[in-house]
Amino acid sequence: MHDIANQAREGGAAAAQPAAAGGIQFRRELTLLDATMLVVGSMIGSGIFIVSADIARTMGSAGWLLTTWLLSGVVTLVAALSYGELAGMMPQAGGQYVYLREIYNPLFGFLYGWTLFLVIQPGTIAAVAVAFAKYTALLVPALSERNVLFSIAGLHVSAAQVLAIASIALLTWVNTRGLREGRLVQDVFTITKVAALLGLIVLGLVFGRQAGAIAQNFGHFWEAFRTRAASDGTITREALRGIGLLSALGAASVGSLFACDAWNNVTFTAGETKNPRRTVAISLGLGVAITVVIYMLANVVYVLALPVTGQPGAPDVLGRGIQFAADDRVGAAAAAMILGPAAAIVVAAAIMLTTFGCNNGLILAGARVYYAMARDGLFFRATGTLNRRAVPGRALVLQAIWASALCLSGRYSDLLDYVIFAVLIFYSLSIAGIFILRRRLPDAERPYKAFGYPIVPALYVLVAVAICVDLLIVKPKYTWPGLAIVALGVPVYYIWRRSSARA
Asked: What is the pTM of this model?
Protein backbone atom coordinates (compact mmCIF):
# COMPACT_ATOMS: atom_id res chain seq x y z
CA MET A 1 0.00 0.00 0.00
CA HIS A 2 1.29 3.45 -0.92
CA ASP A 3 2.39 5.53 2.06
CA ILE A 4 1.16 9.12 1.96
CA ALA A 5 3.15 9.99 5.04
CA ASN A 6 6.38 9.06 3.23
CA GLN A 7 5.30 11.18 0.27
CA ALA A 8 4.74 14.14 2.59
CA ARG A 9 8.18 13.73 4.17
CA GLU A 10 9.70 13.56 0.70
CA GLY A 11 8.15 16.89 -0.25
CA GLY A 12 4.97 15.54 -1.84
CA ALA A 13 6.64 13.71 -4.70
CA ALA A 14 4.46 12.81 -7.63
CA ALA A 15 3.40 9.37 -6.39
CA ALA A 16 3.99 7.83 -9.79
CA GLN A 17 2.24 4.59 -10.60
CA PRO A 18 4.68 1.66 -10.68
CA ALA A 19 5.58 0.36 -14.10
CA ALA A 20 3.52 -2.56 -15.36
CA ALA A 21 4.97 -5.78 -16.69
CA GLY A 22 7.52 -5.18 -19.41
CA GLY A 23 8.38 -1.72 -18.08
CA ILE A 24 5.46 -0.03 -19.86
CA GLN A 25 4.06 2.95 -17.96
CA PHE A 26 1.04 5.19 -18.35
CA ARG A 27 1.57 8.18 -20.63
CA ARG A 28 0.55 11.55 -19.23
CA GLU A 29 -1.39 12.93 -22.20
CA LEU A 30 -4.67 14.25 -20.74
CA THR A 31 -4.82 18.06 -20.70
CA LEU A 32 -7.22 20.26 -18.70
CA LEU A 33 -9.58 20.33 -21.70
CA ASP A 34 -9.48 16.53 -22.01
CA ALA A 35 -10.11 16.05 -18.29
CA THR A 36 -13.00 18.55 -18.27
CA MET A 37 -14.56 16.91 -21.31
CA LEU A 38 -14.24 13.56 -19.53
CA VAL A 39 -16.19 14.94 -16.55
CA VAL A 40 -18.92 16.55 -18.67
CA GLY A 41 -19.10 13.68 -21.15
CA SER A 42 -19.35 11.00 -18.47
CA MET A 43 -22.11 12.88 -16.62
CA ILE A 44 -24.41 13.82 -19.48
CA GLY A 45 -26.21 10.74 -20.76
CA SER A 46 -29.90 10.11 -21.31
CA GLY A 47 -30.96 10.99 -17.74
CA ILE A 48 -31.62 14.68 -18.38
CA PHE A 49 -34.17 13.72 -21.03
CA ILE A 50 -36.27 11.37 -18.84
CA VAL A 51 -35.62 11.76 -15.08
CA SER A 52 -37.79 14.87 -14.67
CA ALA A 53 -40.97 12.84 -15.24
CA ASP A 54 -40.43 10.76 -12.10
CA ILE A 55 -39.43 13.85 -10.10
CA ALA A 56 -42.59 15.61 -11.26
CA ARG A 57 -44.75 12.67 -10.12
CA THR A 58 -42.99 12.63 -6.75
CA MET A 59 -42.93 16.39 -6.06
CA GLY A 60 -45.88 17.72 -8.11
CA SER A 61 -44.85 21.28 -8.96
CA ALA A 62 -42.38 23.31 -10.99
CA GLY A 63 -40.76 24.86 -7.93
CA TRP A 64 -39.99 21.51 -6.34
CA LEU A 65 -38.93 19.98 -9.66
CA LEU A 66 -36.31 22.70 -10.08
CA THR A 67 -35.37 22.52 -6.39
CA THR A 68 -34.70 18.77 -6.68
CA TRP A 69 -32.36 19.29 -9.62
CA LEU A 70 -30.69 22.26 -7.92
CA LEU A 71 -30.15 20.31 -4.69
CA SER A 72 -28.61 17.41 -6.61
CA GLY A 73 -26.42 19.78 -8.59
CA VAL A 74 -25.18 21.66 -5.52
CA VAL A 75 -24.51 18.42 -3.61
CA THR A 76 -22.55 17.07 -6.59
CA LEU A 77 -20.59 20.30 -7.05
CA VAL A 78 -19.66 20.40 -3.36
CA ALA A 79 -18.45 16.80 -3.59
CA ALA A 80 -16.39 17.56 -6.69
CA LEU A 81 -14.79 20.63 -5.13
CA SER A 82 -13.94 18.60 -2.03
CA TYR A 83 -12.45 15.76 -4.08
CA GLY A 84 -9.94 18.20 -5.50
CA GLU A 85 -7.96 18.02 -2.26
CA LEU A 86 -7.81 14.21 -2.39
CA ALA A 87 -6.90 14.27 -6.08
CA GLY A 88 -4.02 16.64 -5.38
CA MET A 89 -2.66 14.45 -2.58
CA MET A 90 -3.01 11.13 -4.44
CA PRO A 91 -2.59 11.68 -8.20
CA GLN A 92 -2.57 7.98 -9.12
CA ALA A 93 -4.54 5.75 -11.46
CA GLY A 94 -7.58 4.42 -9.62
CA GLY A 95 -8.84 7.67 -8.08
CA GLN A 96 -11.52 7.02 -5.50
CA TYR A 97 -10.34 3.44 -4.95
CA VAL A 98 -6.92 4.83 -3.97
CA TYR A 99 -8.47 7.48 -1.70
CA LEU A 100 -10.48 4.94 0.30
CA ARG A 101 -7.54 2.54 0.47
CA GLU A 102 -5.21 5.21 1.82
CA ILE A 103 -7.65 6.94 4.18
CA TYR A 104 -9.03 3.80 5.79
CA ASN A 105 -7.53 0.45 4.71
CA PRO A 106 -7.41 -1.84 1.66
CA LEU A 107 -10.79 -3.41 2.57
CA PHE A 108 -12.61 -0.10 2.07
CA GLY A 109 -10.88 0.43 -1.26
CA PHE A 110 -11.72 -3.10 -2.35
CA LEU A 111 -15.40 -2.74 -1.42
CA TYR A 112 -15.61 0.32 -3.61
CA GLY A 113 -13.76 -1.34 -6.49
CA TRP A 114 -15.84 -4.50 -6.08
CA THR A 115 -19.10 -2.56 -6.26
CA LEU A 116 -17.78 -0.47 -9.13
CA PHE A 117 -16.92 -3.54 -11.22
CA LEU A 118 -19.88 -5.68 -10.26
CA VAL A 119 -22.57 -3.06 -10.77
CA ILE A 120 -21.75 0.64 -11.02
CA GLN A 121 -19.50 0.93 -14.08
CA PRO A 122 -20.62 -2.02 -16.27
CA GLY A 123 -24.25 -1.51 -15.22
CA THR A 124 -24.12 2.13 -16.23
CA ILE A 125 -22.33 1.26 -19.47
CA ALA A 126 -25.04 -1.30 -20.26
CA ALA A 127 -27.86 1.14 -19.46
CA VAL A 128 -26.33 3.89 -21.58
CA ALA A 129 -25.63 1.49 -24.46
CA VAL A 130 -29.23 0.25 -24.46
CA ALA A 131 -30.48 3.86 -24.39
CA PHE A 132 -28.25 4.55 -27.41
CA ALA A 133 -29.77 1.55 -29.20
CA LYS A 134 -33.35 2.49 -28.33
CA TYR A 135 -33.03 5.98 -29.76
CA THR A 136 -31.16 4.70 -32.80
CA ALA A 137 -34.18 2.46 -33.40
CA LEU A 138 -36.38 5.55 -33.69
CA LEU A 139 -34.39 6.41 -36.81
CA VAL A 140 -33.82 2.81 -37.97
CA PRO A 141 -36.87 0.73 -36.89
CA ALA A 142 -35.15 -2.55 -37.81
CA LEU A 143 -32.94 -2.05 -34.74
CA SER A 144 -35.90 -2.02 -32.35
CA GLU A 145 -36.17 -4.10 -29.18
CA ARG A 146 -39.22 -5.72 -30.74
CA ASN A 147 -37.08 -7.21 -33.49
CA VAL A 148 -35.95 -10.46 -31.84
CA LEU A 149 -33.10 -11.92 -33.87
CA PHE A 150 -32.68 -15.27 -32.13
CA SER A 151 -33.26 -17.13 -28.87
CA ILE A 152 -30.84 -19.25 -26.84
CA ALA A 153 -32.04 -21.30 -23.86
CA GLY A 154 -35.04 -19.05 -23.42
CA LEU A 155 -33.00 -15.86 -23.74
CA HIS A 156 -34.40 -13.64 -26.49
CA VAL A 157 -31.80 -11.42 -28.14
CA SER A 158 -33.12 -8.35 -29.91
CA ALA A 159 -31.54 -6.14 -32.55
CA ALA A 160 -31.32 -3.33 -29.96
CA GLN A 161 -29.28 -5.55 -27.61
CA VAL A 162 -26.94 -6.52 -30.42
CA LEU A 163 -26.46 -2.85 -31.33
CA ALA A 164 -25.84 -1.96 -27.67
CA ILE A 165 -23.18 -4.67 -27.37
CA ALA A 166 -21.65 -3.62 -30.70
CA SER A 167 -21.34 -0.02 -29.46
CA ILE A 168 -19.60 -1.23 -26.28
CA ALA A 169 -17.25 -3.41 -28.34
CA LEU A 170 -16.42 -0.55 -30.72
CA LEU A 171 -15.66 1.94 -27.96
CA THR A 172 -13.64 -0.66 -26.05
CA TRP A 173 -11.59 -1.40 -29.18
CA VAL A 174 -10.97 2.33 -29.73
CA ASN A 175 -9.74 2.70 -26.17
CA THR A 176 -7.44 -0.31 -26.42
CA ARG A 177 -5.72 1.48 -29.31
CA GLY A 178 -4.35 4.08 -26.92
CA LEU A 179 -5.22 7.06 -24.77
CA ARG A 180 -4.90 9.47 -27.68
CA GLU A 181 -7.69 7.71 -29.57
CA GLY A 182 -9.95 7.50 -26.52
CA ARG A 183 -9.56 11.14 -25.57
CA LEU A 184 -10.10 12.27 -29.17
CA VAL A 185 -13.46 10.49 -29.29
CA GLN A 186 -14.32 11.95 -25.88
CA ASP A 187 -13.48 15.53 -26.82
CA VAL A 188 -15.29 15.45 -30.17
CA PHE A 189 -18.50 13.87 -28.88
CA THR A 190 -18.64 15.94 -25.69
CA ILE A 191 -18.14 19.26 -27.46
CA THR A 192 -20.72 18.27 -30.09
CA LYS A 193 -23.36 17.17 -27.61
CA VAL A 194 -22.89 20.21 -25.38
CA ALA A 195 -23.32 22.46 -28.44
CA ALA A 196 -26.44 20.50 -29.48
CA LEU A 197 -27.97 20.70 -26.00
CA LEU A 198 -27.28 24.41 -25.69
CA GLY A 199 -28.85 24.91 -29.12
CA LEU A 200 -32.02 23.09 -28.04
CA ILE A 201 -32.10 25.09 -24.80
CA VAL A 202 -31.82 28.42 -26.64
CA LEU A 203 -34.59 27.38 -29.05
CA GLY A 204 -36.74 26.34 -26.10
CA LEU A 205 -36.22 29.61 -24.23
CA VAL A 206 -37.02 31.65 -27.34
CA PHE A 207 -39.70 29.63 -29.12
CA GLY A 208 -40.88 26.95 -26.69
CA ARG A 209 -42.80 29.00 -24.14
CA GLN A 210 -46.45 28.01 -23.80
CA ALA A 211 -48.75 30.49 -22.06
CA GLY A 212 -50.98 27.77 -20.58
CA ALA A 213 -48.08 25.79 -19.16
CA ILE A 214 -46.47 28.91 -17.69
CA ALA A 215 -49.72 30.02 -16.04
CA GLN A 216 -50.30 26.59 -14.49
CA ASN A 217 -46.71 25.96 -13.38
CA PHE A 218 -46.03 29.39 -11.90
CA GLY A 219 -49.51 29.76 -10.45
CA HIS A 220 -48.90 26.65 -8.32
CA PHE A 221 -45.13 26.94 -8.09
CA TRP A 222 -44.69 25.53 -4.56
CA GLU A 223 -47.72 23.22 -4.23
CA ALA A 224 -46.01 19.91 -3.46
CA PHE A 225 -47.90 16.65 -3.89
CA ARG A 226 -47.17 13.07 -4.86
CA THR A 227 -49.07 11.73 -7.88
CA ARG A 228 -49.86 8.05 -8.38
CA ALA A 229 -51.49 6.51 -11.44
CA ALA A 230 -53.54 3.32 -11.14
CA SER A 231 -53.59 0.65 -13.84
CA ASP A 232 -57.00 1.89 -15.02
CA GLY A 233 -55.59 5.38 -15.62
CA THR A 234 -57.08 7.08 -12.56
CA ILE A 235 -54.72 9.20 -10.52
CA THR A 236 -54.50 10.19 -6.87
CA ARG A 237 -52.65 13.17 -5.46
CA GLU A 238 -51.28 13.32 -1.92
CA ALA A 239 -50.33 16.72 -0.48
CA LEU A 240 -46.78 16.87 0.92
CA ARG A 241 -45.89 18.86 4.02
CA GLY A 242 -43.27 18.80 6.75
CA ILE A 243 -41.42 15.52 7.15
CA GLY A 244 -43.39 13.99 4.27
CA LEU A 245 -42.12 16.74 1.98
CA LEU A 246 -38.50 16.23 3.03
CA SER A 247 -38.84 12.45 2.59
CA ALA A 248 -40.27 12.93 -0.89
CA LEU A 249 -37.46 15.33 -1.77
CA GLY A 250 -34.88 12.72 -0.77
CA ALA A 251 -36.63 10.01 -2.79
CA ALA A 252 -37.02 12.29 -5.82
CA SER A 253 -33.30 13.12 -5.69
CA VAL A 254 -32.32 9.54 -6.57
CA GLY A 255 -32.88 10.06 -10.28
CA SER A 256 -31.27 13.49 -10.46
CA LEU A 257 -28.29 12.37 -8.38
CA PHE A 258 -27.81 9.43 -10.70
CA ALA A 259 -28.00 11.79 -13.71
CA CYS A 260 -25.28 13.87 -11.98
CA ASP A 261 -23.09 10.86 -11.22
CA ALA A 262 -19.86 9.67 -12.90
CA TRP A 263 -18.14 13.04 -12.31
CA ASN A 264 -15.51 11.21 -10.26
CA ASN A 265 -14.41 9.13 -13.26
CA VAL A 266 -11.74 11.69 -14.09
CA THR A 267 -9.94 10.79 -10.86
CA PHE A 268 -9.48 7.24 -12.19
CA THR A 269 -7.26 8.61 -14.97
CA ALA A 270 -4.95 10.71 -12.76
CA GLY A 271 -2.02 8.49 -13.74
CA GLU A 272 -2.40 9.69 -17.35
CA THR A 273 -3.10 13.37 -16.69
CA LYS A 274 -0.60 16.18 -17.16
CA ASN A 275 0.09 17.96 -13.87
CA PRO A 276 -2.61 15.84 -12.16
CA ARG A 277 -2.38 17.63 -8.80
CA ARG A 278 -3.79 20.75 -10.43
CA THR A 279 -5.57 19.50 -13.54
CA VAL A 280 -7.84 16.91 -11.93
CA ALA A 281 -9.03 19.31 -9.22
CA ILE A 282 -9.84 22.11 -11.69
CA SER A 283 -11.55 19.76 -14.16
CA LEU A 284 -13.78 18.38 -11.39
CA GLY A 285 -15.14 21.79 -10.44
CA LEU A 286 -15.33 23.13 -13.99
CA GLY A 287 -16.90 20.02 -15.52
CA VAL A 288 -19.55 19.59 -12.82
CA ALA A 289 -20.43 23.31 -12.93
CA ILE A 290 -20.94 23.19 -16.72
CA THR A 291 -23.13 20.10 -16.45
CA VAL A 292 -25.28 21.44 -13.61
CA VAL A 293 -25.94 24.68 -15.51
CA ILE A 294 -27.01 22.69 -18.58
CA TYR A 295 -29.30 20.50 -16.46
CA MET A 296 -30.95 23.49 -14.79
CA LEU A 297 -31.48 25.33 -18.09
CA ALA A 298 -32.99 22.20 -19.66
CA ASN A 299 -35.49 21.93 -16.81
CA VAL A 300 -36.37 25.61 -17.11
CA VAL A 301 -37.23 24.88 -20.75
CA TYR A 302 -39.37 21.94 -19.65
CA VAL A 303 -41.48 24.02 -17.24
CA LEU A 304 -41.87 26.80 -19.82
CA ALA A 305 -43.01 24.40 -22.53
CA LEU A 306 -45.07 21.83 -20.61
CA PRO A 307 -47.36 21.81 -17.57
CA VAL A 308 -45.90 19.79 -14.72
CA THR A 309 -49.17 18.01 -13.95
CA GLY A 310 -51.06 15.91 -16.47
CA GLN A 311 -53.20 12.88 -17.16
CA PRO A 312 -51.69 9.56 -18.30
CA GLY A 313 -54.41 8.96 -20.88
CA ALA A 314 -54.37 12.42 -22.46
CA PRO A 315 -54.12 12.45 -26.27
CA ASP A 316 -51.37 15.07 -26.58
CA VAL A 317 -48.13 16.15 -24.93
CA LEU A 318 -49.70 19.16 -23.20
CA GLY A 319 -52.39 16.97 -21.66
CA ARG A 320 -49.88 14.42 -20.39
CA GLY A 321 -47.58 17.11 -19.04
CA ILE A 322 -44.15 16.40 -17.58
CA GLN A 323 -45.54 13.82 -15.15
CA PHE A 324 -46.86 11.47 -17.81
CA ALA A 325 -44.75 12.20 -20.86
CA ALA A 326 -44.80 9.12 -23.12
CA ASP A 327 -42.24 6.62 -21.77
CA ASP A 328 -41.04 9.45 -19.46
CA ARG A 329 -39.44 11.15 -22.49
CA VAL A 330 -39.79 14.69 -21.21
CA GLY A 331 -37.08 15.98 -23.54
CA ALA A 332 -38.93 14.64 -26.56
CA ALA A 333 -42.23 16.11 -25.35
CA ALA A 334 -40.68 19.55 -24.83
CA ALA A 335 -38.95 19.35 -28.22
CA ALA A 336 -42.31 18.56 -29.83
CA MET A 337 -43.60 21.91 -28.54
CA ILE A 338 -40.52 23.67 -29.91
CA LEU A 339 -39.80 21.92 -33.19
CA GLY A 340 -43.06 20.25 -34.14
CA PRO A 341 -42.88 17.05 -36.28
CA ALA A 342 -39.09 17.21 -36.56
CA ALA A 343 -38.72 16.82 -32.77
CA ALA A 344 -38.50 13.02 -32.73
CA ILE A 345 -35.57 12.96 -35.15
CA VAL A 346 -33.71 15.83 -33.45
CA VAL A 347 -34.09 14.42 -29.95
CA ALA A 348 -33.15 10.90 -31.09
CA ALA A 349 -29.99 12.27 -32.69
CA ALA A 350 -29.17 14.33 -29.59
CA ILE A 351 -29.55 11.34 -27.28
CA MET A 352 -27.46 9.17 -29.60
CA LEU A 353 -24.70 11.78 -29.32
CA THR A 354 -24.96 12.10 -25.54
CA THR A 355 -25.07 8.37 -24.84
CA PHE A 356 -22.27 7.41 -27.23
CA GLY A 357 -19.95 10.07 -25.83
CA CYS A 358 -20.97 9.25 -22.27
CA ASN A 359 -20.11 5.58 -22.71
CA ASN A 360 -16.71 6.37 -24.15
CA GLY A 361 -15.82 8.22 -20.95
CA LEU A 362 -17.17 5.46 -18.71
CA ILE A 363 -15.32 2.76 -20.64
CA LEU A 364 -12.06 4.72 -20.72
CA ALA A 365 -12.04 5.54 -17.00
CA GLY A 366 -13.42 2.41 -15.37
CA ALA A 367 -10.64 0.08 -16.50
CA ARG A 368 -8.08 2.17 -14.60
CA VAL A 369 -9.66 1.18 -11.27
CA TYR A 370 -9.44 -2.54 -12.02
CA TYR A 371 -5.82 -1.98 -13.07
CA ALA A 372 -5.02 -0.32 -9.73
CA MET A 373 -6.79 -3.10 -7.79
CA ALA A 374 -4.87 -5.77 -9.69
CA ARG A 375 -1.59 -4.01 -8.92
CA ASP A 376 -2.53 -4.35 -5.24
CA GLY A 377 -3.27 -8.06 -5.67
CA LEU A 378 -7.02 -7.52 -5.23
CA PHE A 379 -8.25 -8.26 -8.75
CA PHE A 380 -7.45 -10.56 -11.66
CA ARG A 381 -3.69 -10.35 -12.15
CA ALA A 382 -3.93 -9.98 -15.93
CA THR A 383 -5.87 -6.73 -15.58
CA GLY A 384 -2.86 -5.17 -13.85
CA THR A 385 -0.87 -4.99 -17.07
CA LEU A 386 -0.67 -2.36 -19.79
CA ASN A 387 -0.63 -3.25 -23.46
CA ARG A 388 1.98 -1.95 -25.91
CA ARG A 389 -0.08 1.24 -26.30
CA ALA A 390 0.21 1.93 -22.55
CA VAL A 391 -3.46 1.32 -21.66
CA PRO A 392 -4.97 -1.49 -19.53
CA GLY A 393 -6.25 -3.48 -22.51
CA ARG A 394 -7.26 -6.62 -20.62
CA ALA A 395 -9.14 -4.63 -18.01
CA LEU A 396 -11.00 -2.86 -20.82
CA VAL A 397 -11.95 -6.17 -22.43
CA LEU A 398 -13.10 -7.72 -19.15
CA GLN A 399 -15.26 -4.67 -18.44
CA ALA A 400 -16.79 -4.90 -21.92
CA ILE A 401 -17.62 -8.59 -21.50
CA TRP A 402 -19.43 -8.02 -18.20
CA ALA A 403 -21.28 -4.93 -19.47
CA SER A 404 -22.38 -6.91 -22.55
CA ALA A 405 -23.66 -9.72 -20.34
CA LEU A 406 -25.71 -7.19 -18.40
CA CYS A 407 -27.13 -5.87 -21.69
CA LEU A 408 -28.36 -9.39 -22.48
CA SER A 409 -29.72 -9.97 -18.97
CA GLY A 410 -31.83 -6.84 -18.97
CA ARG A 411 -31.28 -6.47 -15.20
CA TYR A 412 -28.83 -3.58 -15.28
CA SER A 413 -31.49 -1.00 -14.34
CA ASP A 414 -32.44 -2.97 -11.22
CA LEU A 415 -28.80 -3.21 -10.20
CA LEU A 416 -28.26 0.50 -10.69
CA ASP A 417 -31.31 1.28 -8.55
CA TYR A 418 -29.75 -0.83 -5.82
CA VAL A 419 -26.39 0.91 -5.71
CA ILE A 420 -27.18 4.65 -5.78
CA PHE A 421 -27.42 4.34 -2.00
CA ALA A 422 -24.00 2.66 -1.82
CA VAL A 423 -22.52 5.29 -4.14
CA LEU A 424 -23.56 8.05 -1.73
CA ILE A 425 -22.02 6.12 1.16
CA PHE A 426 -18.68 5.84 -0.66
CA TYR A 427 -18.73 9.53 -1.55
CA SER A 428 -19.44 10.41 2.09
CA LEU A 429 -16.61 8.20 3.31
CA SER A 430 -14.20 9.78 0.85
CA ILE A 431 -15.09 13.34 1.83
CA ALA A 432 -15.04 12.45 5.53
CA GLY A 433 -11.51 11.27 4.80
CA ILE A 434 -10.48 14.89 4.20
CA PHE A 435 -10.98 15.55 7.92
CA ILE A 436 -9.04 12.39 8.80
CA LEU A 437 -6.08 13.29 6.59
CA ARG A 438 -6.02 16.88 7.85
CA ARG A 439 -5.53 15.50 11.36
CA ARG A 440 -3.28 12.57 10.44
CA LEU A 441 -1.04 14.41 7.96
CA PRO A 442 -1.29 18.14 8.70
CA ASP A 443 1.95 18.93 6.84
CA ALA A 444 1.28 16.89 3.69
CA GLU A 445 1.39 18.79 0.40
CA ARG A 446 -2.09 19.96 -0.64
CA PRO A 447 -1.89 21.78 -4.00
CA TYR A 448 -5.66 22.31 -3.78
CA LYS A 449 -7.69 22.52 -0.57
CA ALA A 450 -11.35 21.57 -0.23
CA PHE A 451 -13.66 24.52 -0.88
CA GLY A 452 -15.20 25.95 2.30
CA TYR A 453 -13.40 23.55 4.64
CA PRO A 454 -14.55 22.49 7.19
CA ILE A 455 -18.15 23.71 6.87
CA VAL A 456 -18.93 22.87 3.23
CA PRO A 457 -17.50 19.29 3.24
CA ALA A 458 -19.21 18.64 6.57
CA LEU A 459 -22.53 19.82 5.15
CA TYR A 460 -22.09 17.48 2.20
CA VAL A 461 -21.54 14.50 4.48
CA LEU A 462 -24.59 15.45 6.59
CA VAL A 463 -26.84 15.91 3.52
CA ALA A 464 -25.63 12.70 1.86
CA VAL A 465 -26.14 10.69 5.06
CA ALA A 466 -29.60 12.24 5.51
CA ILE A 467 -30.54 11.20 1.96
CA CYS A 468 -29.25 7.68 2.65
CA VAL A 469 -31.32 7.39 5.85
CA ASP A 470 -34.34 8.69 3.97
CA LEU A 471 -33.83 6.11 1.21
CA LEU A 472 -33.55 3.30 3.76
CA ILE A 473 -37.02 4.28 4.96
CA VAL A 474 -38.88 5.27 1.79
CA LYS A 475 -37.19 2.96 -0.74
CA PRO A 476 -36.11 -0.11 1.24
CA LYS A 477 -36.45 -2.50 -1.69
CA TYR A 478 -33.67 -0.61 -3.48
CA THR A 479 -31.36 0.30 -0.59
CA TRP A 480 -31.05 -2.96 1.34
CA PRO A 481 -30.05 -5.02 -1.74
CA GLY A 482 -27.41 -2.36 -2.43
CA LEU A 483 -25.99 -2.85 1.04
CA ALA A 484 -26.03 -6.62 0.46
CA ILE A 485 -23.98 -6.22 -2.74
CA VAL A 486 -21.37 -4.19 -0.86
CA ALA A 487 -21.36 -6.56 2.13
CA LEU A 488 -20.84 -9.55 -0.16
CA GLY A 489 -17.48 -8.02 -1.01
CA VAL A 490 -16.16 -8.53 2.54
CA PRO A 491 -15.69 -12.33 2.34
CA VAL A 492 -14.55 -11.97 -1.27
CA TYR A 493 -11.84 -9.55 -0.14
CA TYR A 494 -10.40 -11.97 2.40
CA ILE A 495 -10.58 -14.90 -0.02
CA TRP A 496 -8.84 -12.83 -2.71
CA ARG A 497 -6.17 -11.56 -0.33
CA ARG A 498 -5.43 -15.09 0.88
CA SER A 499 -5.18 -16.38 -2.69
CA SER A 500 -2.94 -13.49 -3.64
CA ALA A 501 -0.64 -14.13 -0.69
CA ARG A 502 -0.29 -17.80 -1.66
CA ALA A 503 0.51 -16.83 -5.24
From this structure: 0.89
